[in-house]
Records
---
Amino acid sequence: MKTGIATVSISGNLEEKIEAIAAAGFTGIEIFEQDFIADIRSPAAVGRRIRESGLEVMLFQPFRDFEGLPKALRAKAFERAERKFDVMQELGCELMLICSSVHPEALGGIDRAAADFAALGELAAKRGLRVGYEALAWGRHVNDHRDAWEIVRRADHPNVGLILDSFHTLGRGIDPETIRRIPGDKIFFVQLADAPLIDMDLLYWSRHFRNMPGEGDLAVTDFMRAVMATGYAGPVSLEIFNDQFRGGSPETIARDGYRSLISLMDEVRRQEPEAGVQDLPALPAPVPVRDTAFIEFAAQGEGLEKLEGLLSSLGFRRTGRHVSKAVTLWQQGDIRIVLNAETTGHAANAWNVRGTTICDIGLSVSSAADTVTRAEALGAKPFSQPLGPGEMPIPAIRGLGGSVMHFIDEGALSDVWDVEFLPEGEAAAEAGLTRVDHIAQTMSYDEMLSWSLFWTTLFDMEKAPMVDVVDPDGLIRSRAIAAPGGEVRITLNGAETHKTLAGSFLAEGLGATIQHVALATEDIFATAEALKAKGFEALPLSPNYFDDLAARFDLAPEMLEKMRAASILYDADEQGEFFQLYSKPFAGQMFFEIVERRGGYAGYGAPNAPFRIAALKRLQPPKGMPAIQKT
Ligand SMILES: O=C(O)c1ccc(O)c(O)c1
Ligand SMILES: [Mg+2]
């Protein structure tokens, strides 16, 4: 299977685009004409450069306003096409994309357009070139792939074929099953893009909001299944017009594209085995996640002592000390927290950059080996560092932005805790915390699509709709990613400005990181009592919040009083209820959350987030003072 991406999909100049596309692992490139025209090099030199980087020049596009023109304009269009054929021959590209006309003088009529294409096919054939016809969703007369196909069919020329683009089909709500009727060898090229469902003008939506398959809401997998069912054996290529990507990092966007495409084709192969997806390396299915195995903090000195104090006040006990490293294990229920005070290695690097921070998360998965294999096939890098005495080689990868994740399964490595840690028997009463409910990653808004793609392509996890959270100083976009039974839940919080709480956390800490961890209890009132006895200090909330709760929900007055007394927040959905309790911030702006889910409540208390953020902000030092001291 040949994979491609259009130059228009990523930022930078043509050279930067070529480098990033080649580095990400694609087979080829679609040259978007503007990118080529802006380059100083000759077509031959550009073609050579692309091939030297290991890429094929798969497609030259777009050629606009060709078909259906009245006489004089028609002749000009053919001349224009000949000039572009010249360029293509120099470039070493044999396929041109012609998108359906938007010309105000273009005439309709399928036979007229077919005759134009038959004539152009002749000219192309003389030079050993081919042309493909794509229906733009906003084309003047042709805006549906079924009409474009009828024109190609009637043109009946071996050098004239159809080009399909998932956006134009799915964006118009055309059933992709209709593609199954087209002969695969008449489909010359396939472009893929997803998009978030937003009700707006098709052209504007397409030119600004496309994103990678899996990042949006369109049925791109169904589209591609139908394409493969035709016997299509040509390239599968991404064509993403996106304002954010145009301003992003070429490497990141190209890597995301590759991850998206491989994961999509893997899914197509699974769902449509008879379609015979060729030359796609075998890779394990998206990996089921079972639980959060551990959360590891990098902490040293005074910051370490403070964190130990906070963990004790949350009912955690130190249960182990690493056999060879300055690392301790803290437990409660099924929760494991690792405190790493090493002065070399990944944790030390993280501490040097951020101070006290979560530097690693461990996930329990069905197969750790499969997880690493799939992650690498999708472009992730394995992670390892020299093993100390007595240490076990736990499979790990680099997540995005330098983060690290370890994977533990039920195999030989599951007894890592007994092997690597000497037990410490500090007896102390727990506070009823049972497991990690969710992990909240904070990032800049631009990183959200990358992270949601990372989680949903590697693991058997689904993304929930985006929600907006109001911070007094700006907006936070929030999206949850969860395993089907909620075994692991991640929330991605994207800050648009550095003035928001999440944004200032980022400004201090360099890149996406985990800002809070939510721990589950089965009885939040009992937990709140137990914590109080241990000296835990809850985040104080405004009394107005509880008055509003009384107005919005039918809560028993005694329960409301208990919530008010213990600073417990509340939310409910159709399935159940949700209770939340926050710690005060520590190490700058990190915090813990304690939650109780009753019934099948599926959310994260998003309606409460503005009040939590305002409460946290009240505790920040006055503006102008440093918010984080590196301890
Ligand atoms: O927005 C456009 O004009 C445009 C151009 C070329 C394409 O392949 C396409 O899908 C859209
Ligand atoms: Mg297209």
---
Amino acid sequence: MRLVTLTLNPAIDQTVALDALNPGSVHRARSVWADAGGKGVNVACCLADWGLPVSVTGVLGQDNAAPFAQLLAAKGIDDRFVRIPGETRTNLKLLDAASGDTTDINLPGLEFGPSTAEAVRAVLVDLTGPGSLAVLAGSLPRLLGPDAYARLTAELKRRGTRVVLDASGPALAAALAAGRDGLPDAIKPNRHELEEWAKRPLPTFADVLDAARECQRAGVALVCVSLGAEGALFVASEGALRALPPPTRVASTVGAGDALVAGLVAGLHDDLSLPDLARRALAFAAGKLSRTGANLPGRAEVEAIAAEICVEEIS
Ligand SMILES: Nc1ncnc2c1ncn2[C@@H]1O[C@H](COP(=O)(O)OP(=O)(O)O)[C@@H](O)[C@H]1O
Ligand SMILES: O=P(O)(O)OC[C@H]1O[C@](O)(COP(=O)(O)O)[C@@H](O)[C@@H]1O
């Protein structure tokens, strides 16, 4: 199965590690570092660490593309990003070093017009076809309009490509409003993103389950809702289940959702049953949480974590 990820708005994640985050006060940072990232880049990095060949595309600013090129080359990822004049955005991540929790400040990114969008679409079409799987992930440049993922999904599905979508706000809403032939095969909102889509708060697990089932009824085959330290919910035709994270040392939560998506993709690649898919996805997230950047431990360690993950069926 050929795997490709799309990141239309990548980012350099600049993490500032603090003893504790106290809004409104002066902080002295413990350390600071930068990782080339963005949702599809992070997903591809985890898939490559797991040992799967993967291609990436999207749009990079040519003025600071070097860290991306270095990272992708080091992980053996096929770099098919379209480069345009300007700089890729830098996102700020304020890390509370005691808990591993981060406060994210995600900036708007590079805007680009129809000719760049068309160049990326052409790369995506070139990289996909029957039997391949595409991950469309992250925020969209404003100029593209909120239905950009819905349009790409419809085209990819016509070409026999499965689509995993990790989007939020109007882009997620537009994708879920597409007709049956244009719906993604899988989505991974977090609780907040699902609340935005459902237009109501989802305080309890039962509320989350109801909203996830609404997405499934709209025609999405696999709905995975990530719930931070509470694990994740999986709803598919085989049933619904909740997976609980193992005890995890949290170095940084940045990219935990992306690692979960990568685990889902690796599970779909291997045609796993729903419980094993859930274990694989949570093991990827737990493996990534123990380190900074989009890096997984070795396969044996990830498999050992997966074996420990508790999965509860929901009747
Ligand atoms: N503090 C945490 N402790 C243990 N596991 C966590 C923690 N935060 C995230 N995870 C794991 O990572 C997954 C994705 O995290 P989440 O924060 O829900 O995603 P996102 O980054 O997309 O908001 C969760 O489903 C869970 O398995
Ligand atoms: O495209 P968006 O939604 O602005 O998100 C980009 C940010 O998300 C990340 O991919 C991390 O995502 P998660 O923590 O949800 O896995 C960062 O690398 C990046 O700064």
